[in-house]
């Protein structure tokens, strides 16, 4: 598997406070350790989000897939003994960052496939939104407010299987603060790389406003019913 954007991903992550295990790009990963394969997404033309930004963003996503595989390959190579325990622990911590970056981006891009679409009237997802937020508009207002959280990260919506309630939540970077046992329903990328070609950092709010009219809510509600 060739990751075209690997070196560029290193530079962007360093600039945005990311961390990588290596910048050499020379650590081969054997075929049998490549457990993750970059997905393809059929994303239509979006309003307020340029094709250039989507293209660059997709290449960055491919970098997360490549680094997740690279880390797994390195973990497999290292002896499992006291001499290598520190390096192994660092790699395993780093894996959470790369894996979260991969899976959250996959959720993010899937939400645009098929073009804008409203949630199903009377469907279970919209009924739960109305139970928890009163109406759909207060719900989207809540999510937009969450997305304006200072710093880099993800504005998430979770479903709690135990209570049935929807829970808005912020994740730092890709992996800090993930809620264990809850099902992710909606993922909004609030890293600057998600909008830097379209909006300066001072116009983050315009990016947030541009996201929602482009969402295919039927993709999102399909996660609610899984």
Features:
single chain, 226 residues, mainly alpha, 2 domains, three-stranded antiparallel beta sheet, 9% strand
Could you explain how this protein is built, in words?
The protein is mainly alpha-helical and 226 residues long. The chain has a three-stranded antiparallel β-sheet with strand order 2-1-3. It contains seven helices and three strands. 45% of the residues lie in helices and 9% in strands. It has two domains: 6-110, no CATH class; 124-224, Iron/manganese superoxide dismutase, C-terminal domain (minor pseudopilin epsh fold). Helix 1 packs across helix 2 (51-77) and helix 2 (51-77) runs antiparallel to helix 3.
Write the layout of secondary structure elements.
Elements: H1 6-15, H2 51-77, H3 85-110, H4 124-133, H5 136-147, E1 153-159, E2 166-172, E3 183-189, H6 204-211, H7 217-224
Antiparallel strand pairs: 1-2, 1-3
What would you say about this model in short?
With 226 residues, the chain is mainly alpha-helical.
SS strand fraction? 5-15%
Beta strand count: 3
| Secondary-structure element string | HHHHHEEEHH
What would you call the structural class?
mainly alpha
Biggest sheet features: 3 strands, antiparallel
Domains (count)? 2
Q: Low-confidence parts, pLDDT < 50 over ≥5 residues?
A: 1-31
Q: Look at the structure and give the mean pLDDT.
A: 86
Alpha plus pi helix count:
7
Helix content: 40-55%
């Amino acid at each position: 598997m060739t990751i075209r954007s690997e070196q560029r991903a290193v530079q962007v992550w360093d600039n945005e406070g990311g961390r990588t295990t290596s910048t050499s790009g020379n650590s081969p990963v054997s075929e049998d350790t490549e457990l993750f394969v970059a997905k393809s997404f059929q994303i239509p033309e979006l309003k307020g989000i340029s094709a250039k930004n989507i293209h660059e963003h997709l290449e960055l996503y491919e970098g997360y897939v490549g680094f997740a595989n690279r880390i797994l390959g390195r973990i497999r190579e290292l002896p499992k003994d006291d001499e290598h325990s520190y390096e192994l622990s660092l790699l395993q911590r780093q894996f959470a960052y790369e894996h979260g970056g991969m899976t959250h981006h996959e959720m993010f891009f899937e939400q645009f496939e098929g073009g804008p679409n409203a949630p199903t009237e009377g469907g279970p997802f919209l009924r739960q939104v109305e139970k928890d937020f009163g109406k759909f508009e207060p719900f989207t207002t809540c999510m937009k407010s969450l997305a304006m959280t200072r710093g880099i990260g993800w504005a998430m919506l979770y479903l709690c299987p135990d209570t049935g309630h929807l829970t808005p939540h912020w994740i730092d970077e890709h992996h800090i603060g993930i809620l264990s046992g809850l099902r992710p329903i909606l993922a909004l990328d609030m890293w600057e790389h998600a909008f830097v070609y379209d909006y300066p950092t001072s116009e983050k709010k315009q990016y947030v406003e541009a996201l929602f009219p482009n969402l295919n809510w039927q993709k999102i509600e399909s996660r609610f019913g899984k």
